[in-house]
Structure to design on (147 residues):
């Protein structure tokens, strides 16, 4: 007698949903890492520009060059501000995807526990049937020996 769980397709579906949620979370975390890496690159660019401005100011330099460098510095600062927003948004997405994955895992666990419970009931039923069959055989044997 084989165990067949009537809701096995639902258990499989919940497993697939959890797997998909893991993939989506992994993708969101990759996007967050990309945004953080880009932000780090902007900080390095700004630091390099600051060092260059410090080096250039020790020499005689035209005002137009200084204004150009300052304008570029302001542009980099604006990019950094935007990138901070992108990082915050990516962190928010990661949190949402983590919550979604958590829900999927709980859902899968509920259905897996239900399957496990049904399997245990099935095993108990099979064990009882086997015991009943053994008892019947022992009773028949005893009856034959006593006549």
């Amino acid at each position: 007698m084989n165990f067949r769980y009537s809701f096995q397709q639902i258990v499989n579906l919940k497993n697939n949903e959890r797997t998909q949620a893991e993939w989506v979370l992994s993708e969101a975390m990759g996007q967050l890492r990309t945004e953080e890496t880009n932000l780090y690159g902007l900080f390095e660019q700004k630091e390099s520009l600051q060092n260059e401005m410090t080096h250039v100011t020790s020499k005689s330099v035209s005002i137009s060059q200084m204004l150009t460098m300052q304008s570029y510095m302001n542009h980099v600062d604006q990019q950094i501000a935007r990138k901070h927003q992108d990082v915050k948004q990516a962190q928010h997405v990661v949190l949402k995807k983590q919550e979604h994955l958590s829900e999927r895992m709980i859902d899968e666990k509920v259905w897996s526990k239900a399957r496990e419970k049904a399997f245990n009931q099935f095993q108990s039923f099979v064990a009882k049937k086997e015991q009943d069959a053994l008892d019947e055989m022992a009773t028949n044997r005893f009856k034959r020996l006593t006549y």
